[in-house]
């Protein structure tokens, strides 16, 4: 489960801002590429903002796993607090 230091709603705000959608439109399971037409530059921007907010370094190789909000939360939780 997601660690308390990683708040899904904080991540939702970051992702929604980068994808230029309202936070209430961004579901936990919608695919960023298929539903929100995200590209690799947006994925890198999401990663950079998360790294800045949580003061962690997440390898770009993890981007392939960050397909939706649930997956982003799982990846971030692995790196926060380690």
From TrEMBL:
This protein's name: Acyl carrier protein
Matches recorded under InterPro entries: ACP-like_sf, PP-bd_ACP
Organism from which the protein derives: Solihabitans fulvus
Pfam families: PP-binding
Ranges that cross the membrane: none
Domain Carrier: 5-80
